[in-house]
Amino acid sequence: MPSPQPAPSPSPAPSPRPVTVAGLVLAAGAGRRYGMPKALARHHGRLFVEHAADVLLEAGCDPVLVVLGAAADDVVAAAPDLPGVVVNPDWATGMASSLKAGLAALNADAVVILLVDMPGVTAEAVRRIAAHAAPGALVMGGYGDRRGHPVLLGREHWAGVAASATGDRGARDYLRTHDVTVVPVGDVADDTDIDHPN
Length: 198
Description:
Blueprint: E1 21-27, E2 42-43, E3 46-47, H1 48-58, E4 64-68, H2 72-78, E5 85-87, H3 95-104, E6 110-115, H4 123-130, E7 138-143, E8 146-154, H5 158-164, H6 172-176, E9 181-184
Parallel strand pairs: 1-4, 1-6, 4-5, 7-9
Antiparallel strand pairs: 2-3, 6-8, 7-8
């Protein structure tokens, strides 16, 4: 009589796929009030655009993409090590077109967005925001009673953000009409935008 065969052990459940979080730097503007494209401006000896991209990389965002427009060739020449670049031909119409161009070029579950002229935003602030990433998430940094950058957009919201973004308003109107998780970052970051040279 044949020996009974042991029952096959159940296959382990597949591990959930980790959420992918991209980083996006909006750096296409001409910087009219500043007097030059801010992507070419320096802060503590480094280009704004290099600093912003490095903050996202240090925080673990992957991929990181920089949207350029005004003086794009000059920016690429001055910062040849940027992790990824997309040029927005419609940059003069405002930030919304750059946001749309960046979202269209990305493939991730969520994206953390930084503006090029906020060198006080830190990798720690980005990590805190990215910790809440999910395809359906909307997250903003909290500074006391004010909401600001970094901003995280889950992929499920990208089409809605792109449809509502106009001129220089970016995702602002969309975020005002949807539930947003606010994560305090004021102890590790400052999202003041620099509009004039020091």
